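Notes from the pairing session

We agreed to fold both candidates in a single pass and log them together. This is the raw record for the first candidate, unedited. Please don't reformat it; downstream parsing expects exactly this layout.

Candidate A
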Amino acid sequence: MPRVFIKTYGCQMNERDSEQVSQMFIERGYTMTRTEHDADVVLINTCSVRDQAEQKAIGKMGMVRRRRGHIINIGSSAGKEVYKNGNVYCATKFAVDALTRAMRLDLVEHNIRVSQVSPGHVEETEFAITRFDGDAERARIYEDFQPLKAGDVADAIYYQVTRPPHVIVQDIVLFSAQQASANSGSTSDLIVSLDRLRDSMQPFRE
């Protein structure tokens, strides 16, 4: 029976993603191991743009020495196109996209595959509450449409890592069927924008 080892660095969202991916493998007949030495598949889940994440992944697994491995960065649709009031966040996600492409060029000679998953709106994360500075009411942006689930992203990762050795799925851009682009989503986004416009006009009314 094939065995999987997952090492997680970073925040609570990283931990939750790893749990989803683990469950996906278990449902398909894999077993989880405590060390990478006992594993047939090794995954490292970390924040790609800080703490020298790619060096951690490559060094941890000895990928260059063994001349095999697969690195998957989790990006975002915000790394493909920008949206209003998303300047810094979009910049970090564009950095993940560039990092993935550059790593692929650097590591192809060592037979290491480098991929990316770039999802749009995903529920079951702390993204919305963080985006709105802890305001739970404003963070209720997913109530009027069905966003992606964390398991959808995990399924995309599973598909990438289970391709034959001669195949690499370089990037998967993933949206809910109700989201056409990074600039579209729930009607709550429109309401928030209108609220901001109303607030900005208030001084002119006084």
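Candidate B (folded immediately after A)
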Amino acid sequence: MREGSLRAPLFLYTYSMSDSRNYLIKHGESGFTADLPVNPTIPDTNNYLASNFFRFTLPRVSTLTYFAQSVAMPGIQLSPVEMTNTLGRANQFVGGRFDHEPLVVQFIVDEETLNYQEIFNWMKKIANYDNDTNIIAIDQKDKFVSDANIFLTNSAFQEKRVVVFKNAYPIALSGIQFSSTLNDNEPIIASVTLNFETYSFETVS
């Protein structure tokens, strides 16, 4: 240290999540909540979730479930409530609306296109496609939706958690691209986009 220079002393302090939680509860810090995570500071396992540690099920379309290749876990966004004022930036508060992305599933189309037709026929039942005889009444709603599930597995491929998507239904089905220029017999991959009401994480018993 150069003579005559000043340097602030360095203090090191380590704390756990429980220490922080107890402090906030005791002192009632403004802008904080006592509803902190209850997960342990050091988890029971440090194994990661791999992209192939999953199993997708959609009971209404069993053939598609068998040929499912990938699932895009949808993101979720909570918009704040805004209140205008005389300044250039609106005040924002918690408690806005939720917006989530749709659930997208990619699957191999079987040679008889059974799984592709499963989705196509499902969509035709939801709305009028080639006639105007379909009547969607409130008491018929349960006939048009189905819960979708993503089972998450550990490194031994044992199911530990499941993500449940309530009341899912298809809103988009991709096209099929044929080509005679390919030398190898490559499988055709199609995708279906599903809308849903809510999703939740549950433990597999």
